[in-house]
Design goal:
Length: 594
């Protein structure tokens, strides 16, 4: 039994009561049949936009595609069981309310007996919340010159014509509800309506149910034509293959890497998620026309790319993008690492290492070591950083074989990653955070080499709020190398050091004096010298936390006040440079770089 929100039910009911047809269409129908909560609802009708607006006063229509946005309250949809039955019909009966665009001649449906097979345990998605329902008049799209928007649309009285313009068969189904049989749900907390299985019809002219049952992504009709209409659909095919996944209980003890079959597996799992498969003709159409993606706005590409990165299996998504020829039109810089070997610290190529690092970045580490949390998932910044943290290694590489070096690749990769994200129109905050993590991902945490002062310096550069993300990136980097796993004790020791210095001064505002104290003690006016003195005091306090006492700072400030401004600034810069050179020396010795 389904529970549908009162608001959505009212939209369907009001359209039908006004003499029009009304169907839920597209992704919401697909999600219902998979036992998922629809993220939003779309309604198709033979009513013209102006007629829809007359029925729903709280709506707006500001496009040329026949879509009216009807405002509703924030609602949720609940699905009560996994074994849903529907009445499957070849052609819906003409509306009992006469004169409103009959639908006819739909092909024979795929499933016999009107029963949807029990769904496997598909991954749940979406929160079911939304504020508008889009109500669109049945339409036929004309030529797509820009491979994004139709040059013109033509309204049609036929539902099948409308479904035929959609991207994939699993999204080209419609659901009708005989609202006269709906029964009010008495449970107050549900705030919805229940309807019996016999009250619902599925219109499926392109066998979407069969593809849904078999886990297939298939274009509606001519795949090449569908992608020519909107080239972004090629990315959507990849995204759907990841999002519409289900869990298989399997053993991975003998599983070989897709990237490097000759290497042994370096991680075991008890289960894996199996995605939908892109049908062969659809796949070939993508490969043939991947270059069409260049016509798509970077913002739209970014949005689909983010959904792929934030899926449960982003590594497989990037691999599929590469196999289909799409990745070169999104991040061509990353594909340059394909087949480029590294050194003794990696068994994988630069490309493979980025893929595996992304794989292991999905979940953050537990404080007890490099283990999967299994519940919480890492944010977009960590995942993007894992994918791109070595993106400039091809430029930094010097030499060949096990002793090849990649000096400064962290700095070069941070800069290149920022340019990539700028090109894809990411927001500045995301770009800055990714740059920050990649720039510092080579930090030292060897026991004996790391000091409290070193940890304070790292905190000052990275920011305390970013440290967990940096640790998660570093662990993903280590696991993605395929050589050693992340060392739990070293990581725990570093986290202990972080906790130990968390209250030490790592910024001027954490010093136990401020500019007012300096002006009162030194009898000087506001000016750049105050800032220069504070910078030197901070550099010294970072090196030795015991110096962050008010009386010590003021005494030292009196000494520094005798030094001119230029020399003060040089003192601060010199201290920072010396500290950085010492840390670089440790990193070089550890990674055999010159």
């Amino acid at each position: 039994m389904l529970i549908i929100s009162n608001e959505v039910k009212n939209i369907l009911t009001k359209l039908q009561e006004a003499g029009f047809e009304a169907y839920a269409v597209g992704g919401c129908v697909r999600d219902l049949m998979l036992g998922r909560k629809p993220k939003d609802w779309d309604v198709a009708t033979n009513a013209l936009p102006e007629q829809v607006q007359k029925i729903f006063s709280d709506s707006f229509y500001e496009n040329k595609f026949g879509t009216v946005s009807v405002k509703i309250q924030n609602v949720n949809l609940k699905i009560e069981n996994d074994n849903l039955k529907f009445k499957i019909i070849t052609s819906p009966q003409p509306s009992p309310l006469k004169g409103k665009g009959e639908i006819s001649n739909l092909p024979t449906p795929l499933l016999k007996g009107g029963k949807i097979p029990s769904a496997p345990p598909y991954a749940k998605g979406g929160d079911g919340g939304f504020e508008f329902v889009e109500v669109t008049t049945y339409r036929v799209d004309e030529k797509y010159t820009d491979k994004r928007h139709p040059d013109a649309v033509r309204f049609t009285p036929n539902l099948e014509d409308d479904l035929a313009r959609r991207d994939f068969t699993i999204n080209a189904m419609a659901l009708s509800i005989e609202t006269r049989n709906l029964k009010l749900e008495t449970q107050k907390e549900e705030k919805g309506f229940k309807f019996q299985v016999s009250d619902c019809n599925i219109i499926d002219p392109f066998n979407g149910q069969e593809d849904l049952k078999n886990g297939i992504i298939r274009a509606v009709g001519d795949a090449e034509k569908r992608f020519n209409e909107d080239a972004l659909r090629m990315l959507r095919a990849v995204r759907f293959s990841l999002e519409l996944s289900f869990v298989e209980q399997v053993s991975r003890k003998n599983e070989k890497s897709k990237l490097n079959p000759s290497q042994p597996p370096f991680m075991e799992r008890e289960e894996k998620k199996t995605g939908f498969i892109i049908e062969e003709k659809t796949k070939e159409a993508i490969k043939k026309n991947a270059a069409w993606l260049q016509a798509i706005a970077k913002e739209r590409i970014r949005d689909e790319f983010v959904k792929i990165i934030m899926s449960d299996r982003p590594d497989e998504g990037i691999l599929l993008l590469h196999d289909l020829g799409l990745l070169q039109y999104i991040i061509p810089e990353f594909t340059k690492g394909f087949g480029v070997a590294q050194n003794k610290h990696h068994i994988y190529s630069i490309f493979e290492h980025g893929i595996f690092s992304l794989k292991f970045s999905v979940h953050p580490v537990k404080s007890s070591g490099a283990e999967f949390n299994g519940v919480k998932k890492n944010n977009l910044v960590v995942r993007l950083s894992a994918l791109l943290h070595d993106v400039a290694k091809t430029e930094a590489k010097r030499g060949e074989g096990k002793d090849a070096t990649f000096y400064n690749h962290d700095i070069m990769s941070a800069r290149l990653a920022a340019r990539i994200l700028e090109r894809l129109r990411f927001d500045n905050d995301t770009i800055d955070r990714v740059f920050n993590l990649i720039r510092h991902h080579m930090f030292v945490y060897d026991i004996g080499a790391v000091t409290e002062a070193g940890v304070r310096r790292l905190l000052a550069r990275v920011g305390q709020e970013n440290m967990q993300d940096l640790i998660d990136l570093r662990v993903a980097d280590r696991l993605g190398s395929g050589v050693p796993k992340a060392q739990p004790y070293r990581l725990r020791h570093f986290q202990y050091m972080l906790a130990k210095v968390q209250h030490d001064a790592i910024s001027v505002k954490m010093l136990k004096i401020n500019g007012n104290d300096l002006m009162a003690t030194l009898k000087i006016k506001p000016g750049p010298k105050i800032g220069a003195i504070l910078d030197v005091l901070l550099a010294e306090a970072i090196e030795d936390a015991s110096k962050n006492e008010k009386y010590l700072l003021l005494e030292r400030a009196k000494q520094l006040n005798e030094v001119d401004l230029t020399q003060l600034r040089q003192m601060a810069r010199t201290r920072i440079k010396e500290e950085k050179e010492e840390e670089d020396k440790i990193i070089k010795e550890r990674y055999w770089v010159k």
